[in-house]
UniProtKB/TrEMBL annotation:
Binds 1 [2Fe-2S] cluster per subunit. Pfam families: DHODB_Fe-S_bind, NAD_binding_1. The keyword Thylakoid does not apply. This is Cytochrome-c3 hydrogenase, gamma subunit. GO terms for biological process: pyrimidine nucleotide biosynthetic process. Keywords: 2Fe-2S, Iron, Iron-sulfur, Metal-binding, Oxidoreductase. GO terms for molecular function: 2 iron, 2 sulfur cluster binding; flavin adenine dinucleotide binding; metal ion binding; oxidoreductase activity. The keyword Metal-binding applies.
Length: 286
């Protein structure tokens, strides 16, 4: 195989090889988002962006001696931002890490959201829990190019008020952004919670988001996705205008492990972003 030093290497060869080579990186900052989610700002050792990512793409993080795992990433200032929920050995090791610690990062992986398709349209974002991470990446892009998009609406659902990830953006920044409606619901409230209580699909049904020229972008747990797809279709959204990312199925990110396939489709190679119309043509395993 050609390598990046081989004069015969094409741009695609170099891209493929780079996708397998970790860049030595360091943790610039760690923000505790919720009791079990931390946001890592990751830069190169000289505090530059490791590589560009588009909204919806993923990166592979490696903790030396512990292994690696794949996460949604968004571009921050001179860094990549990765939200990590503590769910296993690798994420536990990440949660134990300190700012300044070195690690490996490679990528980006996946198709990401097709920004051209959303241009000029109203956007309805629906996110559950840590599923807000890739959606936030798209929201950041939209807010940075505000004139290119229409009305914005976000419906976010969390287990409880203490599980609100990106709380400052959710409660302080986005609700006062131009033409941006934000609604939050929790499965279980605490005494001082004054917002909605209940599941995301029920809130979508209650709010009846506007349909005209609207593209809907969802990310969250499978049960939330399936029930919300049904509600959106009841509200007359067409499957062609509903998009989701199945990033939670990705493991190796490069078509090697065979853990992400749905029928003949590989989520890591063909996605992770799909329209509901595309998913409906696949076996019902998503
Ligand atoms: S994530 Fe390994 S084959 Fe797709």
């Amino acid at each position: 195989m050609a390598n990046s030093l081989d004069p015969a290497a094409t741009a695609d060869d170099v891209k493929r090889i780079n996708a397998l080579l970790p860049v030595k990186a360091k943790i610039l900052r760690i923000t505790q988002e919720t009791p079990d989610v931390k946001l890592f700002s990751i830069s190169t050792l000289d505090e530059q962006l490791p590589f560009p990512v588009s909204p919806g793409q993923l990166v592979m993080l490696s903790v030396f001696g512990m292994g690696e795992a794949i996460f949604a990433a968004s571009a921050g200032e001179n860094c990549l931002e990765v939200a990590v929920k503590r769910v296993g050995i690798l994420t536990e090791a990440l949660h134990e890490a300190k700012a300044g610690q070195t690690m490996g990062i490679r990528g980006p992986y996946g198709n990401g959201f097709s920004l051209d398709i959303f241009q000029g349209r109203n956007l309805l974002f629906i996110a559950g829990g840590i599923g807000l991470a890739p959606v936030r990446s798209l929201i950041k892009h939209v807010l940075n190019h505000r004139k290119d998009f229409g009305h914005l609406q976000l419906i976010g659902g969390f287990r409880s008020p203490k599980d609100l990830v990106f709380k400052r953006e959710l409660t302080e920044i986005w609700p006062v952004s131009e033409d941006f409606d934000v609604a939050i619901t929790v499965d279980k409230a605490e005494e001082d919670w004054r917002g909605h209580v209940g599941y995301v699909p029920d809130l979508v049904k209650k709010l009846k988001p506007q349909l005209d020229e609207t593209a809907c972008i969802l990310c969250g747990p499978p049960v939330m996705l399936k029930n919300t797809f049904n509600v959106l279709e009841e509200l007359a959204f067409s499957p062609e205008n509903i998009y989701t990312t199945l990033e939670m199925r990705m493991k190796c990110g490069i078509g090697q492990c065979g853990r992400c396939n749905i029928g003949s489709c590989y989520v890591c190679l063909d996605g992770p972003v799909f329209s509901l119309a595309q998913l409906r043509a696949l076996p019902d395993e998503y």
